[in-house]
Amino acid sequence: MHQYNKDAITYRIKECRERNNLTQEYIARKIKVSRKTYIDIEAGKTALKVSTLFDISDCLGCKVSYLLGTDECEPSVGEVLNSLLKINGYKIVKDNSNYMNST
Questions:
Q1: Phi and psi at residue 35, in whole multiples of 5°?
Q2: Rounded to whole angstroms, how far apart are CA atoms 78 and 85?
């Protein structure tokens, strides 16, 4: 059975948030908790529900396995961008139209 290090998880959450230039207030609003609750999550002062961990990973654009420390791969720029667009109500669609005119 894998043992999870709470301090490592909270460190990775904070590190990902700061790397993406997101505020604690922004993440708290997106995962529907108070700013104080989110601050307590990052500080390791409150229990972290699995569903909340998934919500946070979606907001940060990283895998839950990265936050848990079982996957050392950090999210790509594309994954982060896609997650940020998704949590703000946008989605990326493939457009096969040709915008260049060949004349």
A1: -60, -40
A2: 10
Q: Of 60, 57, 33, 55, which Cα lies nearest the Cα of 46?
A: 33
Report d(CA 34, CA 103) in Å as an integer. 57
CB 52 within 8 A of CB 66: no
pTM: 0.68
In the block, residue with structure tokens 């994954």: 79
Q: What is the pLDDT of residues 16-48, one digit of tens each?
A: 999 889 999 999 999 999 999 999 999 999 888
**Residue 101 pLDDT greater than 50, yes or no:** no
Q: Provide the b/e sequence for 54-93 (b: ≥16 CB within 10 Å).
A: ebbbbbbbbeeebbbeeeeeebeeeebebbbeebeeeeee
